[in-house]
Design a protein that fits this description.
The complex is a heterodimer.
Chain A: E1 4-15, E2 18-29, E3 33-37, H1 44-52, E4 61-66, E5 69-70, H2 76-81, E6 84-87, H3 99-103, E7 110-111, E8 114-115, H4 117-130, H5 146-159, E9 164-168, H6 176-191, E10 195-199, H7 203-209, E11 212-217, E12 220-226, H8 234-242, E13 266-274, E14 282-291, E15 296-300, H9 307-314, E16 321-329, E17 332-333, H10 339-344, E18 347-350, H11 354-358, H12 365-370, E19 378-379, E20 382-383, H13 385-398, H14 415-428, E21 433-437, H15 445-460, E22 464-469, H16 472-478, E23 481-486, E24 489-495, H17 501-508, H18 512-515
Parallel strand pairs in A: 3-10, 3-11, 6-9, 9-10, 15-22, 15-23, 18-21, 21-22
Antiparallel strand pairs in A: 1-2, 1-4, 4-5, 7-8, 11-12, 13-14, 13-16, 16-17, 19-20, 23-24
Helix pairs in contact in A: 4-5, 8-17
Chain B: H1 23-36, H2 38-57, H3 65-90, H4 98-115, H5 120-143, H6 149-168, H7 178-185, H8 199-225, H9 233-255, H10 262-280, H11 282-292, H12 294-299, H13 304-330, H14 341-351, H15 363-382, H16 387-412
Helix pairs in contact in B: 2-15, 3-10, 3-13, 3-14, 3-15, 4-5, 4-6, 4-13, 5-6, 5-13, 7-13, 8-9, 10-11, 11-13, 14-15, 14-16, 15-16
Classes of the chains: A alpha/beta, B mainly alpha.
Chain lengths: 516, 414
C-alpha cells in the first residue's frame, strides 16, 4: 500500500454537556476499505461529520491530514472540493427530481446559469453505468427503490471526483440482495483506486469488504485491526466494542423471579410489521415476547434491529403497516389499534426520541406531564389547574427534575431533565406495563443513575418493564431477562445469569443467513 | 440556551403554608412569564401607545364615548373571527374561507328573512347551523382526508364567494327585521331614573367588577388550599385595582353614550368562554398539544383528527355569527360583504402572539391584535388618511409586530 491517505489526530469534539469524541485517532491507507465499528453512541457518526466538515474547523480540537496536507474544512463543500464525500444514513436525495438532476445537484453542468441538458444526461448515464444502474437518468428518484437510491448517491459522489468515500451504515435500510450489490460496488470502486470508509454494525459485512477495522468506544479509539489477519475474529472485534467496567453504575437490584402460573402482564405473540413505505419489507418478523409484573425485560439490538418498530407498532399502531399478531394483557387478548386504547389497557411507551415524539418543547413542564392523562386532573372536561400544578410539583420533587418552577418550558431543560419529564408523564398515566425505549440516550451519567433508580422502583411496585437499549452494560445491570433482536427477528433470550456482553453482541450482530 | 437549568441546585419542596421563602421564586416566574409572553405584553403596551398617540393626534376624538362605541361596533365581527382563527392557528392550520363564509351566511340570512319571512330567531339558529356544517365539511377534508388546510379553505374561499353571488343573484338584499338589526347595531335597553349615564350599563359594569374580584379571590383561596405559591398580598391588591380601573373606564365611556352595544356582550361572552376553554378545558389543551408537537400528541393518546375537526367546525360557526353581525349592521346582505376579513382575522392572530408553526397563542391575544388593527383603522379614519395609506400602515404594523417577536426570541436565545 502507498501509505496513509487520511490521518485524523487526537480529535476532540464536545457538545453542550457531552464529550462525544475524546482523543480519537484514525489512519486510513491509500486505496483500502476501512471499516469503523462501535456501539450506538460510540462517536462514529460524529467522527465522520468532523471529517466531512459538517462540524466545521474550529468546533473541534485536533488535526486532519488528507493526502499529506493539513485540512481545515469550513463546510461540506470544502471537504467535497478535496474529494471527500460522505453518504449519510438518511439519504439526501430530492425525491421528485430526476436521477440526473440529483446527481448534479449543486454541481450542475451549466453556462451562465443555464443547464446544458445534453451534457448532463450523457454524463449521468455514464455515472449510473459505473455504479451498475441501467435506469434512465430522467427517472424520478421517488420511483426507484432504496437500494438503487443508495447507488445514485454513490454516482453523485463519483461526479464530484471522489477520492475518499464515506458510507454511514449503507446497508441498514437495504435487503440482502441490494446489500450484496452495494458491497460488490465498494470492492469494484476499490479496484478503481477509490478509498472508502464504511461504518457498519454487521460483522460479516466488515469481513467481506474491509481491509482494516477501527473500533471506537465511548468517543475513543480502542484499536485498529487488520481484518485479513487470522487473529481478527468476530469475537475479537466484539470484545473490542463492548469491554468496559460495570461497577457502581446501577442501583442494587434483587433480581425478580417470576411466579409461575400467573399470566404475564404483557405478552406479544407472533408479531409482524411491514415498513410503512416499502411495504414488502418486514421490519419486525414473527416476534414473540412477554414481561411479567415486577420484571424488567431487556431488548438488545443494534440500529435497524426493529426494537422501536416493535414497540411503536404494538402501542396503538404508531408505526408501520399491516401489523399482525396478538397482544395479551394479563392473559387476555386486547385491542391496541389506537394509542388511546393502548393507554386505556395500562400500557405506556416512553419514546427514544423525546424531542420529536415525547414532548411539546414549547409547552411547560406541568402541561407536558398531564397530557397523556388529563382526565385525572379534570372534571367534566375542565382541567383543574391547581391540582395539575400540584401533581407536577410532586414529580418535580420526587423525580428531582432540575427546573426553577413547573412553568418552565421543557425545551429549556437539559436532556436528562427532559427525560425525567417524559417518564413523569407516563408514570402519572398509571400504567401496568412501561415500554422504555432508550431511556438514557444522550444524558449524563448522574442523570442515568437517577433514571435507573426510578425504573427499579417501578418494577418493585409491580409494574412490568420492557427496557429497550443499545447499551449492553445498562441492560446487564438492570434486567432480569434479555431478548436479542437482529434485522427484525428475535435471535435469543437470556436470563440474567446467562447474559454477558459477548453473548448478547454475538446474537445482535447475527444476520439472517446465520440464523438458519 | 440562556439559562443553564442543569446547574440550578435542587430546591426544597414548596412550603406547606404557601408563603414563606418562595417570593424570589415567584418573581422569577413572573419575569419569565413576561419574557415568554413578550409579544402579548408588548402588544398590550403597543395598543396603549397607539391609543394615546391617536387620542392626541385627533384632539381626543378617539376617546369620545360615541367613538369608543363605534369602535366596538366596527370591529366586533373581525374580533369574533379572530377568536376562531386563533384556535385554528394554534392547532397548526389556517382558514382562508371565513371572509367568504361570512358573506355566504349573510346572504343565506337575507334569503330566509327578507324573501321567505322566517322569524329572525329561527333564521339566526339556521344560519349558525349552516356555518357549522360548512366548517365541519372543511374540517372533515382536512382532518380525516389529510388535505392541507390552506388548499381546502382556499377552495372554500372561492366556493362560498361564488355561492353568495348565486344566492343573491348579484344584488344587495335587505332590510332585515328589527330584531336582527339590534344584534348588529343595538344597545342595551334603558330603565330607571334619568341620569347622565346609561343605568343598565353601569349596573352591568358593576356586576362585572364584583364577579372579577370574587373570582380572583376564590382563585387565590384555591391555590392556597393546594399549598401552591400565591401572589404576595400587596401585588394581589394592585392587580385587583388595575382590573377594576380598566373595567370601570370602559363602563363609564360606554355608559355616557348610548350604553353597552349588544355585540359587546356577545363578544365578552365569547372571550370569557373561549378563554376558559383554551386555558382549562381538556379540549383546549389538546389543541395546544397537536399544534405544538403533533407526533408527541398522537403518542400521548390525543385524538388529533377529532380535535382538528371540531376546531374547523367551531370556526365555521363563528364565521356564521360574524356574518349575521355584519349583515345586521349594514342592514343588508351584499355579494361583496366580508371581503378580506380572513386576512384581517389572520393578521389579528399573528399580531396577538400566534406562531406560524402552531402551538402558541391566546384568545385574549387575538383580541388585542384585533384591537390594534381596529384602533389603527379608526384613528386613521378620524385623521382622514386614505385607505391606500391605511393598508400600507397596517401591513407595516403586522411586520413590525412579528419582526419584533422574532428578534426578541433570538435575543433571549434558544
Amino acid at each position: 500500500m502507498a501509505g496513509p491517505v487520511l490521518e485524523m489526530r487526537s480529535i476532540v469534539k464536545t457538545f453542550p454537556g457531552v464529550k462525544a469524541l475524546s482523543d480519537v485517532t484514525l489512519t486510513v491507507q491509500q486505496g483500502e476499505v476501512h471499516a469503523i465499528c462501535g456501539e450506538n453512541g460510540a462517536g462514529k457518526s460524529t467522527l465522520m461529520k468532523v471529517l466531512s466538515g459538517v462540524h466545521p474547523h474550529g468546533s473541534y480540537e485536533g488535526e486532519i491530514l488528507f493526502e499529506g496536507e493539513v485540512c481545515r474544512f469550513k463546510d461540506i463543500r470544502a471537504s467535497e472540493h478535496h474529494g471527500i464525500v460522505i453518504i449519510h444514513q438518511e439519504l439526501a436525495l430530492s425525491p421528485y427530481l430526476s436521477l440526473a438532476e440529483n446527481i448534479f445537484l449543486g454541481n450542475e453542468h451549466a453556462k451562465r446559469g443555464f443547464i446544458n441538458w445534453n451534457l448532463t444526461l450523457r454524463h449521468a448515464t455514464e455515472l449510473l453505468r459505473r455504479v451498475g444502474l441501467n435506469d434512465h437518468p430522467e427517472t424520478r428518484v421517488a420511483d426507484i427503490g432504496v437500494g438503487k437510491q443508495q447507488l445514485v448517491e454513490i454516482a453523485k459522489a463519483l461526479s464530484k471526483k471522489v477520492k475518499l468515500l464515506i458510507l454511514d451504515e449503507p446497508t441498514a435500510a437495504l435487503n440482502d440482495e441490494d446489500s450484496e450489490k452495494l458491497l460488490d460496488l465498494i470492492l469494484e470502486l476499490k479496484k478503481q483506486g477509490i478509498t472508502s470508509i464504511i461504518i457498519s454494525h454487521k460483522l460479516n459485512e466488515i469481513r467481506r469488504v474491509a481491509d482494516s477495522v477501527t473500533i471506537l468506544r465511548d468517543g475513543q479509539t480502542i484499536e485498529t485491526l487488520d481484518v485479513k489477519a487470522a487473529e481478527t475474529t468476530e469475537d475479537r472485534i466484539i470484545s473490542g466494542m463492548v469491554g468496559r467496567d460495570l461497577e457502581h453504575r446501577f442501583p442494587e437490584r434483587t433480581p425478580h423471579h417470576a411466579e409461575e402460573g400467573a399470566a404475564p402482564a404483557l405478552e406479544i405473540r407472533d408479531w409482524t410489521v411491514h415498513h410503512p413505505i416499502d411495504q414488502q419489507r418486514k421490519v419486525v418478523d414473527d416476534v414473540s415476547i412477554h414481561a411479567r409484573r415486577g420484571e424488567i425485560v431487556g431488548i438488545a439490538g443494534l440500529m435497524g434491529a426493529g426494537r422501536t418498530e416493535l414497540a411503536m407498532s404494538v402501542f396503538g399502531r404508531a408505526y408501520g403497516r399491516h401489523a399482525a399478531g396478538t397482544v395479551l394483557k394479563d392473559g387476555r387478548e386486547i385491542r391496541t389499534k389506537s394509542v388511546a386504547e393502548a393507554v386505556g389497557h395500562g400500557i405506556a411507551y416512553v419514546t427514544e426520541d423525546r424531542k420529536h415524539y415525547g414532548l411539546n418543547l414549547i409547552d411547560t413542564i406541568n402541561r407536558n406531564i398531564s397530557l397523556s392523562a388529563l382526565g385525572k386532573v379534570a372534571r367534566r372536561g375542565i382541567v383543574d389547574e391547581h391540582e395539575e400544578r400540584q401533581v407536577a410539583e410532586g414529580y418535580r420533587t420526587s423525580m428531582n427534575i432540575k427546573a426553577p418552577t413547573v412553568f418552565e418550558p421543557v425545551g429549556k431543560l437539559s436532556g436528562g431533565n427532559q427525560q425525567k419529564v417524559v417518564l413523569s408523564k407516563w408514570i402519572f398515566a398509571g400504567p401496568d406495563v412501561l415500554i422504555l425505549d432508550e431511556p438514557t440516550r444522550g444524558i449524563d451519567v448522574g442523570a442515568k443513575f437517577e433514571i435507573y433508580t426510578v425504573i427499579d422502583k417501578l418494577a418493585a411496585e409491580g409494574k412490568a418493564i420492557v427496557f429497550i437499549s443499545s447499551e449492553l452494560p445498562e441492560l446487564l445491570g438492570m434486567c432480569d431477562r434479555i431478548y436479542t433482536m437482529a434485522a427484525g427477528r428475535l435471535t435469543g433470550e437470556f436470563s440474567r445469569a446467562e447474559a454477558t456482553q459477548e453473548v448478547l453482541m454475538r446474537q445482535m450482530t447475527k444476520d439472517k443467513e446465520v440464523t438458519r | 440556551m440562556s439559562t443553564d437549568v442543569t446547574n440550578v441546585p435542587a430546591e426544597a419542596p414548596p412550603g406547606k403554608d404557601g408563603s414563606g421563602g418562595s417570593g424570589e421564586n415567584l418573581l422569577r416566574v413572573m419575569l419569565d412569564g413576561l419574557r415568554q409572553n413578550m409579544r402579548q405584553y408588548g402588544m398590550l403596551l403597543a395598543l396603549g401607545l397607539i391609543v394615546v398617540l391617536f387620542a392626541v393626534w385627533t384632539d381626543g376624538q378617539l376617546l369620545l364615548p360615541r367613538n369608543v362605541s363605534n369602535l366596538v361596533l366596527q370591529n366586533s365581527y373581525i374580533l369574533i373571527l379572530a377568536i376562531g382563527m386563533m384556535l385554528v392557528i394554534i392547532a397548526g392550520h389556517i382558514d382562508l374561507s371565513v371572509g367568504s363564509l361570512t358573506a355566504f351566511v349573510g346572504a343565506f340570512a337575507a334569503v330566509l328573512m327578507v324573501e321567505h319571512d322566517v322569524a329572525w330567531p329561527v333564521a339566526l339558529l339556521l344560519c349558525l347551523v349552516v356555518g357549522a356544517v360548512a366548517g365541519s365539511v372543511q374540517g372533515f377534508l382536512i382532518a380525516y382526508l389529510g388535505i392541507p388546510s390552506f388548499i381546502v379553505t382556499l377552495a372554500g374561499m372561492l366556493l362560498f364567494r361564488g355561492l353568495t353571488e348565486i344566492l343573491l343573484e348579484g344584488q344587495t338584499l335587505g332590510p332585515f327585521p328589527d330584531g336582527l338589526q339590534k344584534v348588529g347595531n343595538g344597545f342595551l335597553p334603558e330603565v330607571g331614573p334619568t341620569t347622565n349615564y346609561h343605568n343598565i350599563t353601569l349596573l352591568l359594569g358593576l356586576a362585572v367588577i364584583v364577579f372579577v374580584v370574587l373570582q380572583e379571590i376564590r382563585d387565590r383561596k384555591r391555590q392556597q388550599e393546594f399549598t401552591l405559591d400565591v401572589l404576595p398580598a400587596k401585588l394581589f391588591v394592585l392587580k385587583l385595582v388595575a382590573l377594576v380601573a380598566a373595567v370601570l373606564t370602559v363602563t363609564m365611556l360606554l355608559a355616557s353614550y348610548k350604553g353597552a352595544p349588544i355585540v359587546l356582550l356577545i363578544l365578552g361572552a365569547l372571550v370569557v368562554g373561549y378563554g376558559y376553554v383554551m386555558r382549562n378545558a381538556v379540549f383546549g389543551r389538546h389543541i395546544y398539544a397537536i399544534g405544538g408537537n403533533l407526533p408527541a400528541a398522537k403518542l400521548s393518546g390525543v385524538k388529533d383528527k377529532k380535535v382538528t375537526f371540531y376546531v374547523f367546525l367551531n370556526m365555521g360557526m363563528l364565521a356564521a355569527l360574524a356574518g349575521l353581525v355584519v349583515a345586521a349592521r349594514l342592514n343588508a346582505a351584499s355579494p361583496k360583504a366580508g371581503l378580506s376579513f380572513e386576512l384581517e382575522a389572520i393578521a389579528s392572530s399573528f399580531i396577538g402572539g400566534a406562531s406560524m408553526s402552531g402551538g402558541v397563542g391566546t384568545v385574549l391575544g387575538a383580541i388585542i391584535g384585533g384591537l390594534v388593527l381596529g384602533v389603527l383603522n379608526n384613528g386613521m379614519n378620524l385623521l382622514s388618511v386614505g385607505t391606500d395609506w391605511q393598508q400600507v400602515i397596517k401591513g407595516l404594523a403586522l411586520l413590525a409586530a412579528v419582526g419584533f417577536d422574532v428578534w426578541n426570541k433570538r435575543k433571549v436565545g434558544s
